[in-house]
Every structure is written in C-alpha cells, then in structure tokens.
Amino acid sequence: MTDQYTFRNPVTAYGKISPPEQHQPEPGLDAELEPKADLGEETYRGTGRLEGRRAIVTGADSGIGAATAIAFGREGADVVLSYLPEEEEDASRIAGIIEAAGRKAVKVPGDLKDPNVCREVVDTAVAVLGGVDILVNNAGKQVAQKELTDITDEQFDHTLKTNVYAMFWLTKAALPHLPPGSTIINTTSIQAYSPSPTLVDYASTKASINNFTKGLAQQLAPQGIRVNAVAPGPIWTPLQVSSGQPKEELPEFGQSTPLGRAGQPAELAPAYVFLASPESSYVVGETLNVNGGSPTP
Ligand code: NAD
Ligand code: MG
Q1: With a 6 A CB cut-off, is 171 part of the ligand 1 pocket?
Q2: Domain that holds residue 119
Q3: Three-class SS of residue 227?
Q4: Residue 276: what pLDDT?
C-alpha cells in the first residue's frame, strides 16, 4: 500500500484504476464506490503540523474532504465535518477515524445551499471546539450535461449555490472568529481554466472560486489570515459516479493525464495540510494544482 512518504514511482503509486461503469444518485457514497477510493485511512502519518488547531471541512464525509479531515485529525486538529444528511454512513466512518487519532470530530449534517446551515456549521465549531482557525470550503456539486439546453435552471442554481454561495456564506460567518494565523482553503479545479464542454455550469463556478480566492487573499493578508486554493485534476471520488462524468467514460477516468492515471483522495490531503499549517506562512492567494501533470496557467 502506498503512503505519503515512501520513495516510489508516481506513475505506479496508488495503482492505476479502470472503474467499471456505475451510477449512484447524488451525492453518492464512498461506501458504494467500486473500486474503493484511498482516503489515506490506512497510511496517512501525521507529524504534529496542526497541533491544537480547530478546522471546519465541508464535504468531509467522502473523497477529497474526507482524506483532508483524516489528515487534519492525525496532524493534531479537531474537526467539524459538514456533509449532507444522506451521507451519514460515510461521515460516521470518518468521524471514527479522527476520534481514533485522539481528536474531536463534530458532525454537522445539513444542506449548505441554505445560508442558515452555513452559519450553523460555523456556530457549532465555535461552541464545541472553542473557535475556528482553519476553514476548508470543499463541498461541491458537478453534474455533466452534453448540451447547455440540458442544464435545468434548477441544476444551474444548485451548482452555483453549493460551489460559490456556500463558500461566501461560510467564509462570511467564520471571519469574525478567525484569529491571525488562520487559513482558508478553497477547493477549485483544473476545470477553472480547462473547462470540459459537458461541465459549463460547474467549470464556471471553479473559475469564480479561483478569482474569489485571489481577491480575498489580498483583502485578508494584512489581518494575518491566509487564503489559498487547491485545484485537483481527476480524482476518484463519489462525485464522479453520481453524474459528474458520463458513465461510459469512467473506465478511462484520469488516464489522459501525463501520469496516465486518476489520482486518489489520499494524494490531495498533504496539499491541504501544507496550506493549513504555518509552514506555508508566505504562501497567499496561491492555487496549488494537484492534477497528475496537466499544464496550468
Ligand atoms: P465527493 O462527492 O466525495 O465530495 C463532495 C461533497 O460535497 C459531498 O460528499 C457532499 O458532502 C458535499 N456536498 C455536495 N452538495 C452539498 C450540499 N448542498 N450541502 C452540503 N454538502 C454538499 O467528491 P470530491 O471529488 O471529493 O469533491 C470535493 C471537491 O473537489 C468538490 O468541490 C469538487 O468540485 C472538487 N474537485 C473534485 C475533482 C475530482 O476529480 N474528484 C476534481 C476537481 C475538483
Ligand atoms: Mg460524500
């Protein structure tokens, strides 16, 4: 099994997958993904880089958010996990892994398209963890459609609410609580600058997230709050099998990257840990691409 430290070839690390065609209703469950995604649950080794920190991670039940939440816990942080109520099974498993690392895991199910839920997530962190100093805006909605005319007004609205409005609402609610040294990390995507023709609504939210990150980073830097983004390439998560990709494309998922394979959520977590921790103190408004080698602007 690959871990984040052992010297090895990144072409073969984490294995090359060719997922069978499959479909789950949104939001999809890690528990039902075939093959299983690697969240680093067996391998991630913390080194005390987030000792005593208090984090909020949205979409923390599965995929990239879950791998990040596990890594944060093992690095010494307490974590509030935000997710949808349908994802209780995935969320409980991740909470258990964080608790096994000796840290607090606080589950806050709820739909982030509702600004009240966004405020509740922040209020819970303040009430139960005694504050918040890491905010990871990672929850996302991605539904592929061949034609613009296939995107319903509701899909467009829900994609923008989930990917952009929730980031705004959560950040706005968290700001009054964030002490100097705090970090905000937004999950964007390679889609922000290389949009797929089938992801017009989704890709434009990711361009928006990039822009929001760079503008806000300058605004908050003088207060000692650093804002950065992580831009994943093709990563094996439930998002992809719940209409994120046309299902006939799943067997080749990620194989057109220079590394020739999809990434695993476990390969994203160290990027979030780096941006959350003081070791990245001079990194502000940056987009850290973790995409298997596809060129970026
Ligand atoms: P995922 O399905 O595991 O995570 C997405 C999470 O978003 C879900 O678990 C769910 O809890 C949350 N979510 C969705 N709608 C919500 C709502 N209305 N309220 C509350 N929570 C909601 O998939 P993932 O791939 O790990 O996605 C995480 C982030 O990574 C997303 O922002 C996605 O756009 C981004 N991303 C993923 C890839 C990829 O290839 N998987 C590539 C680039 C960017
Ligand atoms: Mg999920």
Answers
A1: no
A2: 47-290
A3: strand
A4: 99
